[in-house]
Write a structure and sequence with these properties.
Blueprint (H helix, E strand, L loop, with lengths): L2 E3 L2 E3 L13 H4 L6 H18 L1 H20 L3 H31 L5 H42 L4
Antiparallel strand pairs: 1-2
Helix pairs in contact: 3-4, 3-5, 4-5
């Protein structure tokens, strides 16, 4: 049995065009070195910040959580958990934006499956953001409540 690739079936040992060494055009698309790889990654991040309004919302909340965490003097485990969920939200947003770009390229006309792909990508971002809010409230909520409560009960302390 083989793997269907582009309408043809390839057995395990066949010359597969998906392998870069068998497809000269593929080799031209690789980064020349690791620095170029990082350059491409930062270009993607820049694209996100320039074109995706939600990335500014994520940026605002990322900075707000970091500032509040510093103010509350969180411990290492709390920082690690916050870093994981912040990274989760950003990763979901990056993947969702990539999915949207690829779907727009592959399906310039409106198509029900294009909508499904985009909706599922958006749902992934929503799920990661809700998870981050829950973790953030669990970690930041109690010490923040204590700090704010002491300000209300004993102003100036």
């Amino acid at each position: 049995m083989g793997i269907p690739i582009g309408g043809a079936r390839y057995a395990a040992g066949d010359q597969c065009l998906m392998k870069p060494e068998n497809n000269p055009d593929q080799n031209d698309r690789r980064s020349a070195n690791r620095i170029d790889s990082f350059r491409h990654a930062f270009a993607g991040w820049g694209y996100m910040l320039r074109t995706q309004r939600n990335s500014w919302i994520h940026s605002f909340f990322t900075i707000a959580v970091i500032v509040v965490g510093l103010w509350l003097r969180l411990n290492t485990i709390e920082w690690a958990l916050l870093a994981i969920v912040i990274g989760l939200v950003w990763t979901a947003e990056f993947i969702n934006t990539a999915i949207e770009a690829i779907v727009d390229l592959a399906s310039p006309d409106l198509h029900p499956l294009a909508k499904v792909g985009k909706d599922i990508g958006a749902a992934a971002v929503l799920l990661s953001a809700v998870t981050a809010v829950i973790v953030g409230v669990l970690i930041l909520g109690p010490p923040l409540f204590v700090r704010v409560w002491t300000w209300v009960v004993r102003p100036g302390s």
